[in-house]
Every structure is written in structure tokens, then in C-alpha cells.
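Please review this pair:
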Amino acid sequence: MNYEVGEKVGFLFEKGGGTILKISSDNKITVLDDSGFDRIMEISEIVKIHSNDYQLESFTNNINDDESLSTANYFVSKEKLDGSKRSSDVWEIDLHIEELLDSHIGLSNTEILIKQMTEFRSFVKKAQEKMIPKLIIIHGVGEGVLKNEIRTFLAKKDNVEFFDASYLEYGKGATEVRLYHSNKN
């Protein structure tokens, strides 16, 4: 991954991010963090976000047309803690990379994010086609890069509402999505 001075980056192993101030030849990057402090980071500890050349949609638009590329497990019926079944009108997807791939060794942080967003976009597309009204997106807590990308994507959609999923069922790492479908009669 090539980085440039002035690009915005997110931290992968903690919350927050910043702007690249300096790039060293030893794969170290100096970042001015959101709190105004200079931090020296390894390239493997950051991911490029919202820079001039980072347009996630350009990576995933064509991929999402081929549903056969989706490897994610969609949960359409799941037992709740009390033993009752969750409605099949609720689809759930876990976007932790360990759930999507057998191994992610060798993938860059950006490649992992692209894979997660590709699965997510394919999932939303299928749910819209099947007129599913409610989705649960398990993205984890982490530094918030995946959550932010998911919510940025959803904010551009019509007839979509999203918010934090039930803390009791999912903790802090999930988003609930409501899809409002118009009747096609």
C-alpha cells in the first residue's frame, strides 16, 4: 500500500486516526493523531481512509454484481438465548474476517476492508431483492473503520434506517438496519 503525506488514515488496533506527516524508509509513518500528537506507527497498523485516491466503491462496484463471489454465512434463523427462534425476516451477517475467509494471512488491512465491504454490499443487495425488512450487521468494535464505512454506505441509500443493534444481544459491535421496500404491484 502506498501512502502519501497529507492522507487521512485510521488506526487498526485502537480507536482514532490522523493525517500522515512523514513517511520513513523503514516502513514507519509519522501520523498527527486526532488529539494533535505526533505518533510513529508501523504501516501494518494503519489503513487509508477518505483520501483522494481511496474510493472503496471503485473496488467493489463491479464485484457486487457477481453474487457467486460472496462467501459469507447469512443467518436467517437463529435461536435466541431463551430458546425461541428469531424471525426469518431478520438476516444477520458477521463481517469479522475470520468468518469470511479460512485464512487472511498476507492480506493488507485495505484488502481485508475491501473483502468485508464487498460481502456487506452483496448482503444488502440480496436482502433488498428478497424484501427483508431487518438486517443485523456484526462488524465488531475495533477502531471503527469498518463501522464507519458501513454507515457511510448506508447513509447514501434511500429507504434505509440504521442504528446501534441491541447491546444485550450483540454488545457494542453491531448495527441494525431497517430496509423499507415499496410494493412492486
Observations:
- The longest helix spans residues 109-129.
- The chain has two domains: 8-48, 56-179.
- The CA atoms of residues 97 and 103 lie 9 Å apart.
- The chain has a mean pLDDT of 79.
